[in-house]
Amino acid sequence: MSSKPEVLVFDLGGVLINWNGIDPLIRLSGGRLDREAARQFWMHTPWAAKLDLGECTPLEFAGAMADELQLQISPEDMLAQLRSWNSGAFPGARALLQQLSAEWPLAALSNINSSHWQQVSEEFHLVDLFDHVFASYQIRLRKPDPAVYSHVEQALGRQGKQIAFFDDNIECVEAARAAGWQAFHTVGFEPLQATLRAQGWL
Predict the structure, then answer these.
(1) Are 176 and 183 in contact (CB under 8 A)?
(2) Using one digit for the tens of pLDDT, what is the confidence trace for 4-13?
(3) Where are the alpha helices (DSSP H) in the chain?
(4) What pLDDT shows up at residue 1?
């Protein structure tokens, strides 16, 4: 069991929000991409970074993505696909955040683009529960860049083990641990709950 943190920081997609860009990408590629290759695309492809950092429009990214992966799909249809991969908050996510907010300040730290942020902020009914929101396309920093963790520390006025962080990508978790945070690899909502219980925080 870890020491009790002073703030809880959550990734959104894959942790609190049911985002699945892996299975559709495998399907669109005709099976040329396996699950790990599809995950790596989102983490490491330069165009994905440009999208998350607000350096290209979602439509520009959709066209580049279709080209790079040799998908027989128009940019407009690809953009519609991208939006459809966000299917809302996991059942129970809002109630969990409400429960945790009685004891901790809460923050969101997400690699997210403007199109998906519009969905999250207008449709998924979670954002109002966070005391701080760090959306990559707004702060122009992206996990797992060490600079994003320093930015969050400065904004929160806390550092190291005072911060507990939950993310579904191991690279982001490892970078947070390198910054001294208590960081947990939680893929999906049930593992998030289980981790919080195991730590005695839920």
Answers:
(1) yes
(2) 999 999 999 9
(3) 23-28, 35-44, 46-52, 58-68, 75-84, 93-101, 114-123, 136-139, 146-156, 170-178, 189-198
(4) 64
User: Strands 86-89 and 17-19, how do they pair?
Assistant: antiparallel
- The verdict on pTM exceeding 0.90 is yes
pLDDT value for 71:
82
Q: DSSP 3-state assignment of 136?
A: helix
The parts of the chain modelled with pLDDT lower than 70 are: 1
pLDDT score, position 68: 83
The bridge status of strand 182-185 relative to strand 163-167 is parallel
Structure tokens at 136: 């990559």
Angle CA 190–196–200, to nearest 5? 140
Give the Cα-Cα-Cα angle 163, 18, 29 (nearest 5 degrees): 115
Task: DSSP letter for 69, please.
Answer: T
Angstrom distance (rounded) from CA 100 to CA 88: 20
At 24 the pLDDT is 87
Ramachandran category for residue 14: left, alpha or beta (phi over 0 → left; psi -120 to 50 → alpha): left
Instruction: Find the distance separating the first CA and the last CA of the chain, reported in whole Å.
Output: 13
